[in-house]
Amino acid sequence: MEPRLVGPGPYRATRLWNEIIELFRAGMPLRKHRCRFKSYERCFKASEAVECLHELLGSNQNFGPEVTRDQTVKLLKKFLKNHVIEDIKGRWGKEDFEDDGRLYRFPPSSPLKSYPKKPLCGKEVIKFPDWNEPRAGPSQEHIPVKSVAMNSEMWCKRHSIAIGEVPACKLVFRRELTQTNIEEIWKSMTLSRLQKVLGLDSLDEVLDTKLVNSKHIVQNVYNVNKQGIVTLEDKSKELPHWILSAMKCLVNWPSCSDLKQPTYSGFERDVFKTIVDYFSQMKEPLLTFNFFDIFVSVLGLLQKPSKAVEALQISCLLLPPENRKRLQLLVRMMARISLNQDLPRLSESVRTRTLMVQAFSHCILCSKDEIDLDELLAAKLVSFLMDNYQEILSVPSALKSSIEDHVVHLQRVQIKYAGADSDAALPPPSFCHQITTGEFEYQRATGSHEPLAALLEEIVMNKEISVKDKKKKLKQFQKSYPEVYKVRFPSPETEAMLFPEKTKQKPPILMWALKKPFQPFHRTRSFRM
């Protein structure tokens, strides 16, 4: 089974989880092992599983080579907890997996996650003033007009209007936009652009638009300093001064302006630990729980860096201003520390860049519910943020210009012709874009394979039907969809594990059954020749 790129869309974390399980089951070598004078068929050592899964994740374009061996061990712990694997005695449910020589095996059927049925978020209908309604004041009919002497040329012009050669028109007086109207326009057009960049038909399954605060978008765009950092109106939400001093100390090492020069060895590590402890105690990540799905969807665009940067630019505008400012300061610190050659190593075993990703990924992106791949997804996103933080955490100029032009257009007095819409000058937003033939074939294949794989898993896990009916349904499925069936059962052995043969026990031989009743001798009649 070849790994495939999982693009943006709903339930991306679940789709990645199911794909990794299928790849791991298909690629993990199974051999015969001995443990305590007993042999076990079709199993593997814990260290072999770590090696195989680490190589698999590193070569997978959804995760990349930055996945560490420690992160792989943590994922295998979750595999053991969720019964993707079990030990040779059939035990599972605890995260006691270690990188050692203990033996594990696959259960007859590893549980693929079903796609959760989320209630669709209702689309907000943004109400604007009735632009065609004239403002209060003298109507056009009662405007005093200076009398003009009629001549032949003037008569012809008026006659041409009367017979329809020149369309009749009227002035459309616009109401003044309130601040609330402008904020709602920003929200509507920002979400429309995000939907277009992600290539989705709707944002409903990845984002609850009711949770998007239009005031936050406007504040993040206009309340910024010369460096592009958000300025907060509520100063109580600012980072503490001592944390800012600690961050500046490591960024500007060895010239610390706010702190005295260190007097002992290891001072820089203590300062770094202080920063990590502060951000680790936050109750909610900087990207917030509400926006987890939208940022995970953006990860599907990392193969197209320009689109991924724009999607992250827009997504970060949705954050509360205090979260956006902390994200700007933290990611900038992480990137500069990684490039500071004068700063001593903060860890003996891990490179500085890797340490930055491991230390701050969880406080930047994580899910409120337990998501099995959130650590790997967060590490992937944080690495991309560090590489492109200057562009991602700035205000998208193209979006800002288009929205400002639209607002000016709505405020302008216009001439409206009969039967025409006064706002027809602005084309409606388009959500379609051309794709290549290869992308179409991939979307068609993956779009049908995923529901079929879910249907096959439902047949496998159904305990209410008999073994005979289950075998019959599986044969029909194999005949109709051989490619999907081969992914789930890559070899006859995996199929045989679903129906283990039951050893029939012979009933014990009873002593009374050996004692036959006395049978008298019957004399047979002989015939003489």
UniProtKB/TrEMBL annotation:
Return the CDD domains for the record: RhoGAP_BRCC3-like
Q: Which Pfam families match?
A: DEP (PF00610), RhoGAP (PF00620)
What region holds the Rho-GAP domain? 201-393
Tell me which positions the record assigns to the signal sequence. none
List UniProt keywords, sorted A-Z.
GTPase activation
The UniProt transmembrane annotation reads: none
**Gene Ontology MF terms:** GTPase activator activity
Task: Write out the GO biological process terms.
Answer: intracellular signal transduction; positive regulation of Wnt signaling pathway
This one is known as: DEP domain-containing protein 1B
Q: Which organism is it from?
A: Calcarius ornatus
